[in-house]
Design brief:
Strand order of the largest sheet: 6-9-10-3-11-12
Strand content: 5-15%
Number of strands: 12
Shape: elongated
Radius of gyration: 37 Å
CATH topology of the largest domain: ABC transporter transmembrane region fold
Largest sheet: 6 strands, mixed
Distance between the termini: 69 Å
CATH class of the largest domain: Mainly Alpha
CATH superfamily of the largest domain: ABC transporter type 1, transmembrane domain
Number of domains: 2
CATH architecture of the largest domain: Up-down Bundle
Amino acid sequence: MTAWTGAEALPAALSGRLIAQALDAGFLSGHPLRGLAWLLAFGAVTVVGAVASRQVYPQLADVVEPLRDALTRRVVDATLRRSALDPAPPDTAALSRLTRQIETVRDSVAGQLLIVRQFAVTAVFVLIGAASLGTALLPLIGIPLAVALLVFTLTLPPLARRQRALLRAEEDFARLAADTFGALRDVVACGAVRRSDAALEAAIEVQHRARTRLAALGTVRRLAVALGVHLPVALILLDAPHLVRGGLSAGDVVGALSYLTVSLEPALRTLVQGLGASGLRLTVALDRLAEASAPPPTPAAPPAGTAGTGEPVGSAEPAGSGLTLERVSFAYHPQAEPVLADLSLSVADGEHLAVVGPSGIGKSTLANLLAGLTSPGAGTIRLGGAPLAALPAERLHAARVLIPQEAYVFAGTLRANLGYLRPDAGSAALERTADLLGLDGLLRRLGGLDAEIDGGRLSAGERQLVALARAYLSRAGLVVLDEATCHLDPAAEARVEEAFHRRPGTLVVIAHRISSAQRADRVLLMDTPAPVLGTHHELLAHSAGYRRLVGHWSTPPGLPPQALPTGPRGAVG
């Protein structure tokens, strides 16, 4: 890059000298063809500089692309580690840092390398060229240029502070907007629309003021160009008679002016604009990335004999897969209507519970609470007698599995997808599970367990079967299916639920068909302030709400009302 930069700076080094020769030895001495030849030489040097400038960019990519990759790896690693150790809500600005700030660093570093190297070489060559025309020109050019650079350098710290303030204002607004629009339903339900509007307007105003203050200080860039270029031009013109009497020719004076206007002015203007804009963004972005990539704090060790939440370690080890809810309440906002209120429920180890109710009543919320993904506002949820809040993350992950309605299939082999929660499962176990749940057709179509799969090419039902087989193979004692069979036909759904019914452990199904409720040991109806619990037949006999709900469902043809036996389930064959 340095070698090509030297070739790129040839026009800056020779422009004044060639123009002076064109005037003194050509046009002013009565030899226009000779003057034209010197100008053509200047044109040829300009072409050489343009070719050299083009050769700089491949070298530039070799510098900035590895930098971008290294920053991405460092920030991703630190963000994931911090999220794993910090119980606070996830870092919503992490994506912004990756997509915006890392790209800002990459682009800004590339720009600064281009700008700074070009200005440095140009300034040196301009001073050397001016000295070759006449040493009297050096103070007229060098002193104003040094003052301009000093003034601009002194303004960089306040410019960086204002750029940093603008970036923080943008991030704060983005975070507030994401939180507000993500909770829009609760905002409207709580009557907090005006308050939310006021908060957003205040954030916009802060951002506007920060941008205005930055723009006001940015006018210093024009002052730097005026001091570094326009002032020397004025000084040379004012001192031209004295310079000519001192031995400089008219061509030398015009050549010195050419050095300033043709070479130095574009380089200085680009420098102050680049450092005042992309350079400041680079400084601020690097500061923010340094915060993001800092090693996460080491969590403090819990007191001896406890599991971090004050619960005794012994109570944080589930004894079975039974569920107990003790006066559990949950609301998405302190002023919002609670989704659950004082719910007490006991699900025996090995029991099959179906949860039914109209859309929006809170069934998925209950599923998230049972899986420990959401903490109740009040009350306690126990799994195998151990409070969910006291279970270490790795123990909770091993004790339960939740399959949501939209199943996740990642790129890779079918074997990796099925065995994700059971890495030690052999091919025979994977194939038996695929056959048991009805995944054998997909297995044959793809060409075996080691076939690469693309989730986007699978149907919604096939993705659900892959996720269900993954959950079935896990060693988790509690399985929660949140409408995880909604894309399957009734026969396939019955096959899946029969397999899970015979699987050891506790099964909770958020049902969307009456057949799922009929197959369960008990049914929880969430349709009133006080949910109702009982068997399918008990609820039909004693709950008008359940009868109304059943009236909107239809039993699939060919399936008896009680497709599976109730009661304890045996081991999987």
